Amino acid sequence: MHDQHLLSDAALLEQLALDRQWALREIFDRHWERLYAVAYNRLGTQQGAEDVVQEVLSALWVRRKEVHIDHLGKYLSAAVKYAVFYEIRKQQRRAEVHEQLSLKNHYSQQLTPEDALLYKGFIAQVEREIDSLPEKCRLIFRYSREEGLTNREIAKKLQLSTKTVEAHISRAIRQLRTAFKGPGSFISF
Asked: Could you say which of 8, 153, 157, 168 would form a disulfide bridge with 149 (CB–CB 3.0 to 4.6 Å)?
C-alpha cells in the first residue's frame, strides 16, 4: 500500500470509491480542522460544529461511488456551509414552534375553566380529524405543520416529488377546512 499521507485528494477519492475506509480516515485527518473551524465560526458550539462535520464526512462515504468531485477541499467546505445553514434553519424553526407553543400555553392559562374545557375539546377534535387523514397525507401534513419542514425537505425525506407533497398538504387542508367549516370559524391550517 502507498503511504496514504503522500496521496493527492484525487487519489484518495479514487480509493474511497473502491470502498477503502482508510481513505475516508485520511480525508478526515486532512480536512477536519479547517471544516470544524468553518462550522464552529457559524454555529458557535463545539458539539454542533462536530456534528455538522461528521454528517458531511458520513455523507461523503455514503455517496462515494456516485459523487464526482473536482476539488475536495472546496467541495467539503461548501457542504459544511450548506449543512450549517440547514442546521441554523432547523434551530430557527424549533424556536418558532417553541414560541408558538408558549403563546398557546399563555392563552390557555388565561381561559376560564369552561373555556379551557372547550379549548381541550377543540384540540382533541382537530387531532381526530388529522388522525383520520390517509396515512401518507397525515404524515406529510404533520411534517409540514408540526415540524416545520418545507415541501422540498419533506419530498426528499419521503422520496416523493414536491408536487406530490403539495397535493397531500392541499388535500389535508381541504379536509380540515371542511370539518371545521361553519359560522364564526377562524381556523387556519
From this structure: 153
